[in-house]
Specification:
The complex is a heterodimer. Chain A is mainly α. Chain A contains 14 helices and 2 strands; from the N terminus they run H-H-H-H-E-E-H-H-H-H-H-H-H-H-H-H. In chain A, strands 1-2 form a two-stranded antiparallel ribbon. In chain A, helix 1 packs antiparallel against helix 8, helix 2 runs parallel beside helix 4 and helix 9 crosses helix 10. Helices cover about 35% and strands about 25% of the residues of chain B. Chain B contains 10 helices and 10 strands. In chain B, the strands form 2 sheets. Chain B has a 6-stranded mixed β-sheet, with helices on both faces. A 4-stranded antiparallel β-sheet of chain B has the order 2-1-4-5, with helices on one face. In chain B, a hairpin with a 2-residue loop joins strand 1 and strand 2. In chain B, helix 3 runs parallel beside helix 6. Classes of the chains: A mainly alpha, B alpha/beta.
C-alpha cells in the first residue's frame, strides 16, 4: 500500500514534468508537421538560465525570468531561422532543429563547462511536506506538482477561453485555412514556438535542481519526450497529457519493483527454465526501455496514438 | 476589381497554369468552368497566395502576387476551398467566429444573418462541426468565409456531392450574397447553376483559358462544350 501510494505520487510528479516538456512539442509538431529536435535543449537552457539567474537574483526571480528569456530565444530562432528553413520543406526544418540541438549543447559546454553545475533546490523548499507511512514526501515535489498543475490550468484557459487560443486550436488541424480566413498564422506560429519552448524551459527550471543540471540532460529527456508525443497522438494535448502521466507512472513503478522476469512469468503461470542473465533481469533494469516498448506497440496497433487527430 | 493576367502556377516541379487571365468586376458573378484537373482550383489558390505563381494578380490596382495568404484575405478576398476545410474539432459557433478577421472589427454580417440564410446552422450551433452532414458543412464553410466581410468571394465547387435540395439552397445563398453587392468567382462542374447565375464565364483547358464570354455566347457554341466540358 505504501509502495503504491508513494510510487503513484512520484509517478504523477514525473508525468506532469514530462507533460510540461511535451505540451509545447505537441503544439509545434501539430502546427508545422515537423518534430523540433531541439525541444529538450530548451529544457536544458531553462535549467542553466535558472542556475545563472538564481546565483545573481535568487531562485524565485529565476522561476519567472529563465522561461521568459528562453521563450524570447525561441521567438527569435523561429522568426530568423526556422521560418527561412520552412521555405525549403520539412527536411530542411528537421535538419535545422537537429543542428540547433547540437549548437545549444556546445554553447552550454563552452559557457558553463562539461561538469554539472551546482543548481540547488532553494532552502525554503527543502524539507518534508508530509510523511506517508514511513516515506517522506519532499516539499519540492509538492512544489513541482503545484507549478505543473498551475501551468496546465493556464494553458487550458488560454486555449479555450481566448480568441488567440481558438485560432491556435484551429491552426492545429488546418493552418492553411486559418490563414486564408485572414489570421496572421506566421505570427501565431512564432508565438506558439516561443511559448512552447518557454514551457520546456519552465520544466528545466523546476527539474534541473530536482535532478541534475549538466550538458547531457537534454539528451536524457529528449527521447522520452518524443515517445510521449507519439504515444499521445499528433495534435492532441489531451493525448500528450495522458501519455505523460502513463509513462511517468509506469516507469516509476517499474523502477521501484524489484522483481525478475522469472517472477513475472511465474505470475502468469509460466515456469521459466532458463537460468541465464536474461531470466535474472529485474523490472528495475527494464524500466528505461518500457516507454520505447510502449511506443513501438502503439505504432503497431494504433498509429495515430492514443488520441491523435490525424496520421501525418 | 480583380485582374489576373499571364498567370503561371506550379506545384513543386509541375507547371499547372500556363498564362491564365481572367477578371472579376464589382458586384459580378463570374464562373470558371472546365473538366477536373485543368487548373481551375489552382488558379484560385494562386490568387489566394497558396501556391507559387508568376504573372500578375491585381486587386483594386494593387499587386497581390508575393503577398502572404492572410494579407490577401485582409484586403477583402474570401476563399471557400473545395474540401471545405471545416475545423472538425471545433463547434459550429467557433468555426463561424474564426471567420471574423479581428476581434475589433464590426462586420457587415452577423451570426443571425447566417441563421437566416441557413436555419439548420442555428439548431446545430453548439455541436462539433465534424459531425455535420456534407451539406451542412458546405453551408458552414460558406458562412464562415462570409463572416470575414469579403468584397470578392472565391468558391471552389460548392455543390459537389450534394443532394439537389441543398444545391438549391446554395444557389439561393449565392444570390443573396450577390444582392449585397459582393462579387463571386465560382468554380463549378454543374453547368446549370453556372449558366443561371453568372454574368460572364471562362472555360479552362490544359492550364489555359480557352473561352470567355456570356452564358448566351457559351450556350450557342456546342462545339466548345463538346471539346472542353462534356465527358
Amino acid at each position: 500500500m505504501e509502495f503504491v501510494l508513494v510510487s503513484l505520487l512520484n509517478g504523477i510528479t514525473y508525468g506532469m514534468l514530462l507533460f510540461m516538456l511535451s505540451s509545447g512539442l505537441t503544439l509545434i509538431f501539430s502546427m508545422m508537421g515537423v518534430l523540433n529536435f531541439a525541444h529538450a535543449s530548451f529544457y536544458m537552457l531553462g535549467a542553466y538560465f535558472a542556475y545563472q539567474v538564481s546565483v545573481i537574483l535568487g531562485f524565485w526571480p529565476a522561476l519567472l525570468v529563465a522561461p521568459l528569456l528562453v521563450g524570447l530565444c525561441g521567438v527569435l530562432i523561429e522568426r530568423y531561422g526556422l521560418r527561412n528553413a520552412h521555405k525549403y520543406g520539412h527536411v530542411a526544418e528537421l535538419l535545422f532543429t537537429f543542428g540547433l540541438s547540437f549548437l545549444i549543447e556546445e554553447i552550454v559546454r563552452l559557457v558553463w563547462g562539461k561538469a554539472a553545475v551546482d543548481y540547488r533546490i532553494p532552502e525554503a523548499l527543502n524539507g518534508t511536506l508530509f510523511t506517508l507511512f514511513s516515506s517522506n514526501f519532499p516539499i519540492y515535489k509538492g512544489f513541482m506538482m503545484l507549478v505543473s498543475v498551475g501551468m496546465l490550468l493556464a494553458l487550458y484557459a488560454l486555449l479555450t477561453r481566448t480568441r488567440t487560443g481558438l485560432i491556435v486550436q484551429a491552426a492545429l488541424s488546418r493552418p492553411d485555412m486559418v490563414e486564408a480566413l485572414g489570421h496572421n498564422v506566421p505570427r501565431i506560429f512564432m508565438l506558439v514556438f516561443g511559448g512552447g519552448v518557454a514551457l520546456a524551459a519552465l520544466a528545466g527550471v523546476i527539474g534541473g535542481n530536482a535532478f541534475i543540471t549538466e550538458p547531457g540532460m537534454a539528451a536524457a529527456v529528449g527521447t522520452i519526450v518524443f515517445v510521449v508525443v507519439v504515444v499521445g497522438g499528433l495534435g492532441s494535448l489531451a493525448g500528450a497529457f495522458v501519455a505523460s502521466l502513463l509513462i511517468g507512472i509506469v516507469q516509476t513503478f517499474a523502477v521501484g519493483l524489484n522483481v525478475s522476469i522469472t517472477d513475472i512469468a511465474a505470475l502468469f503461470g509460466v515456469e521459466l527454465q532458463a537460468s541465464g542473465a536474461m531470466a535474472r533481469l529485474t523490472l528495475t533494469q527494464l524500466a528505461p526501455i518500457l516507454p520505447y516498448l510502449f511506443m513501438v506497440a502503439i505504432l503497431v496497433f494504433r498509429p495515430r496514438g492514443l488520441m491523435g487527430a490525424r496520421e501525418s | 476589381m480583380l485582374e489576373v493576367s499571364g498567370l503561371h502556377a506550379f506545384y513543386g516541379k509541375s507547371h499547372i497554369l500556363h498564362g491564365v487571365h481572367f477578371s472579376v468586376g464589382e458586384g459580378e458573378i463570374v464562373s470558371l468552368l472546365g473538366r477536373n484537373g485543368v487548373g481551375r482550383s489552382t488558379a484560385i489558390k494562386a490568387v489566394m497566395g497558396q501556391v507559387s505563381a508568376r504573372g500578375s494578380v491585381r486587386w483594386r490596382g494593387e499587386e497581390l502576387l508575393g503577398k502572404k495568404p492572410f494579407e490577401i484575405a485582409r484586403r477583402g478576398l474570401g476563399y471557400v476551398p473545395e474540401d471545405r476545410a471545416i475545423f472538425q474539432d471545433l463547434t459550429v459557433r467557433q468555426n463561424l467566429m474564426l471567420g471574423v478577421k479581428s476581434a475589433k472589427a464590426n462586420g457587415n454580417w452577423t451570426m443571425e444573418d447566417m441563421f437566416d440564410l441557413f436555419p439548420c446552422l442555428k439548431e446545430r450551433i453548439d455541436i462539433l462541426a465534424g459531425v455535420l452532414s456534407g451539406g451542412e458543412q458546405q453551408m458552414l464553410t460558406l458562412c464562415r468565409t462570409l463572416m470575414g466581410d469579403p468584397q470578392l468571394i472565391m468558391i471552389d465547387e460548392p455543390t459537389e456531392g450534394l443532394a439537389p435540395k441543398i444545391v438549391e439552397q446554395v444557389a439561393v445563398f449565392l444570390d443573396q450574397v450577390k444582392q449585397r453587392g459582393i462579387s463571386i468567382l465560382l468554380v463549378e462542374q454543374k453547368l446549370a447553376i453556372a449558366l443561371d447565375i453568372s454574368q460572364r464565364l471562362y472555360v479552362m483547358g490544359h492550364g489555359r483559358i480557352v473561352f470567355e464570354g456570356t452564358p448566351q455566347e457559351f450556350g450557342n457554341d456546342a462545339a466548345l462544350r463538346k471539346e472542353w466540358l462534356e465527358v
